[in-house]
TrEMBL record, chain A:
Residues 4-283 form the Prenyltransferase alpha-alpha toroid domain. Belongs to the protein prenyltransferase subunit beta family. This is Geranylgeranyl transferase type-2 subunit beta. GO terms for cellular component: Rab-protein geranylgeranyltransferase complex. It comes from Olea europaea subsp. europaea. Its EC number is 2.5.1.60. Its cofactor is Zn(2+). Catalyzes the transfer of a geranylgeranyl moiety from geranylgeranyl diphosphate to both cysteines of proteins with the C-terminal sequence -XXCC, -XCXC and -CCXX. Required for male fertility and root tip growth. InterPro entries: PGGT1B-like, Prenyltrans, Ptb1, Terpenoid_cyclase/PrenylTrfase. GO terms for molecular function: metal ion binding; Rab geranylgeranyltransferase activity.
Automatic annotation (TrEMBL), chain B:
This is Geranylgeranyl transferase type-2 subunit alpha. It comes from Olea europaea subsp. europaea. Keywords: Leucine-rich repeat, Prenyltransferase, Repeat, Transferase. Catalyzes the transfer of a geranyl-geranyl moiety from geranyl-geranyl pyrophosphate to cysteines occuring in specific C-terminal amino acid sequences. GO terms for biological process: prenylation.
Amino acid sequence: MGELKTEKHVEYILSVEKRKDDFVSVVMEHLRLNGAYWGLTTLDILGKLEAVDQDEVVSWVMQCQHKSGGFGGNIGHDPHLLYTLSAIQVLALFDKIEVLDIEKVSNYIAGLQNEDGSFSGDMWGEVDTRFSYIAICSLALLHQLDKINVEKAVKYILSCQNLDGGFGCTPGAESHAGQIFCCVGALAITGSLHHVDEDLLGWWLCERQVKSGGLNGRPEKLPDVCYSWWVLSSLIMIDRVHWIDKEKLVKFILDCQDKENGGISDRPDDAVDVFHTYFGVAGKC
Amino acid sequence: MHGIYRKTPSQDEQEASALKAIELRDLQSQFLHLHHNKIYTKEALETSAKLLEVNPEHYTGWNYRKLAVQHFLNHQSETEADSESIQSVLNEELKVVENALKKNFKSYGAWYHRKWVLSKGHSSTDNELRLLVKFQKLDSRNFNAWNYRRFITMLKKISDEEELQYTTDMIYDNFSNYSAWHNRSVLLSHLFEKRGERQSHKESVLEEEFEFVRNALFTDPDDQSGWFYHLWLLDQTVKLEPFLLSSWPPHGSSRSVDYLDGRNLFPSMHSLSKDRMFPLVLYFSEPVEGVNSSTVTIECEYYANEDVIWRPLSANKFGFSQVWFTYLNLPDEVHSLKDCHVKVFVAQFPDIVSSSGFSCSQTSHIVFSLCVPSHDREHAEGQTVPRFSWKDKEFYSHATQSHDASLLRSLHQLKIAEESKSKAASDWSMKIISNEIAHCRELLSSTNCKIGKLTLARLLMAQNKLISYGIPNDGIEVHYEEILGLYHDLMKLDPVHICCYEDESSLVLLKQVTSSMESILRYCYQYGDSTSPRMYPCLCLRLNGLSLSQIGSVERLLWIQMLDLSHNKIRSIEGLEALQLLSCLNLSNNKICSFTALEPLRSLKSLKVLNISYNEIGAHAVNTRRYLCSSPMTHTVENDWNFKEFTNSGVKLTNHWDVFFIFRDLNLIQLDIMGNAVVNDQLKSFLFKLMPSLKWLDGENRN
């Protein structure tokens, strides 16, 4: 009953890349750089990265860079950490990090660290542990981790650790699989995973698997393919991935495919998008 | 796409969509033009408001509005500060946010903009609270709303008690409100911290909370929210002061120092070395820090306390650890010595602290004695090292030989000193746990609820832990069979999580195995017969074939020199680092997936014989222990390893950094690794080079 329809998904992604004028693309114009990362990485996982014009993509990515060193979601959009990471990741995918002025980008990122170790997403000051992960992941990719105060960054992340073992976006915020991925990822990169109670968090995470085999993001919520990544990846980092049933999860992901037109959706019979296609494919691998 | 059904659009729908797209594209490019040219006229602002109503995720739109407000405020200060017009401008912003939230209730940009406006200090926080109540009635799980509520209550300086009442109301409205339960746990933690020393108050609050959550659990036992909260309450209930659980050497023991430093097993290995160094291990009830030569003092004729350095012995070596150790050195001149007494005083000052903030307030002490036998060591020199065999026939069922029996007896009382258990708090804990066990059983009598069973198993284990600490329990005994039975039921009831239950029940099984002298003797075997001149008879703990997936109860196993864990399902050997006397270890036929999983072995200086054959090293694309191991990958270890001497070993070092990392500090004599996908001839010759002491590898002699 199930296999990954690789060809269809590749076709779907390439079509999204070309399709810039339909409503969905226009409304997501501001995060096209994220979309590029999801789409291109999926192609890479499926072994089809050469289907895109590398130079065209790289040139477009660089045009999204703002004079501050940060990247916006598309040309002309304001800079923000969210898109800066995607830019670095896309360039890394093509092995073209050298086109970056590493000093400039690193300074932009490091400049967003606050006194308490947290990171703002941009000059306007929104703080969220997602941004801590983005900053740490970006700088690790650029080998510039020493530009920030890692100890304080870790301390802030730990202040967002909850009593159920999970992490929220700010201190006191409820545990959520996406935030957990970001915090666990940041702690992993900085060698600080010993602060995590692997059994407690592992149990919270494995309880995200519901009867259908899919994973939800928080207790008593619906399953969603993107959590195949957030939850699965977190479980892998703390060596508890054997606490879920992988076969059932794979079946759920495969059921979310649009077998005719390609692409994967958040749950069976919903509309597909690049975001969920990426997470579905990544989760399956 | 969340909430959008998959279907092929009709012709009309496609045309309508194309029109909408063109409109939006025009609006967006118009907006960007205004933004780049810093135009903040009324018309320009209307354009941005229109954009954010249609597309609240357009984050640059929110940035623009902030710039517009700033622009306005700067001009205001040039004329006279007119608080009414400032307020009206900010109210306009709040309206834009409200419209955006109607479109997308979860828009981070919209919520943050509201927060930004409120931070300016001109807006009504009462309005905000009213709005929040309205929002939360529509969606009580929206965490953006809860976060914003936290922000507003902080601005308004609303007390934690009042907010607690709000969560109570929300929970009564709907028990299945994980967000409200979560918030409740946060507020109560704050309150507990503030109240500080008043334990009795904390106790009465916890009792009320148990009753409160019981309503939820009995009303809808399959809803998870209440059960997670219950787990937190349980954790709060069993928080006690840390204390010393066990030690090596154990209190009251009298050992030959040969036994303590492993000479009895491999005399020929030690005959050339002059130092008599042996480990002293302290095992606490939970991870602590602050163990040093002022909090732990050693009195021994031959040893100066000030020179002692205590180190944490956990896989990560940072800060808090359950196990602390040091090495004691007997000076070279001490050739033959009878009964040197060593006294160790633990917790001289209450500076040993657990990670929950409780300090070890009561001093305990250990007294043991050593002797140095004056036998002639020379006969051991020149002997070839025999190959160690794990075959069944090498092991003899244990006969109660006097010195080993007394050793085991002293271990199984875990007796350090009676005064080292804090009484009052633990009596209350026991009472609550027994209560909860009763309620849980009542619930399970009418419903076959999965988390209920798991909770009962965990409650019984918590009760067992308190009993093992010597807390009076009205004669209740631990029934391991019942607990193991619950896990067995769970594996059938909830097969999706079977490995989670296996991991938890391994710990139960090991507790059972080590619970009494009788039960542990069943697993003790003697290696070789006593007539062998090469080795002293030695005890081996054989825990093979028990379906164990992880290791536990290590505090009772500090005496182990030989351990057989083969034919189990072990993936992680965390815990083994405490077994400082371990010389021979069999991990064959398990589920070890990487060399990094062997990191705990790096702490075992006595390890000589290791069998990791028939595992899964090299068989998996993803290494799930990679980030749990301190290594250059986690930016915790400097990459200054000296690879030069190994450059011609035929192995690509960057691919085998983990082999280098794990084995370079080990002095193994014998290693078995066959049956792992990663093994090949190059790897084997690399291992010979890495460990000069290695004589046997997969049965092949070095020569």
